[in-house]
Amino acid sequence: MFSFQTVPSKNELLDAIAQFYDNFGYPEDMSGFINYMPQDLPTSSAELLNRFNCFLAAERRFTLITY
């Protein structure tokens, strides 16, 4: 698993997230933080990572509710 501590740069972390996205069939709910996907507005790598963190938090909440 990658984290800010184990991946040397934000771009490498975003590339790892994109690879996960590719490997799991391009889930639509992840496209908002995939670095090569078109965004509605110009988006920085920091903003993409913020969106990714929000996605992870929502997934954790869903998992807690479901189980």
Describe the structure.
By secondary structure, the chain is mostly helical. It has one domain. The two termini are 23 Å apart.
Structural class: mainly alpha
How large, in whole angstroms, is the Cα Rg? 12 Å
Number of helices: 2
**Beta-strand content bin:** under 5%
How far apart are the first and last residues' alpha carbons, in Å? 23 Å
User: What coarse outline follows from CA principal-axis ratios?
Assistant: globular
Low-pLDDT regions: none
Mean pLDDT: 88
Largest sheet: none
**Overall domain count:** 1
- Which series of helices and strands comes N to C? HH
Task: Tell me the total number of β-strands.
Answer: 0
Percent helix range: 40-55%
List the keywords.
2 helices, globular, mainly alpha, 54% helix, 67 residues, 0% strand
Topology:
Blueprint: H1 10-23, H2 45-66
Briefly characterize the structure.
By secondary structure, the protein is an all-alpha fold. The chain is built from two helices and no strands.
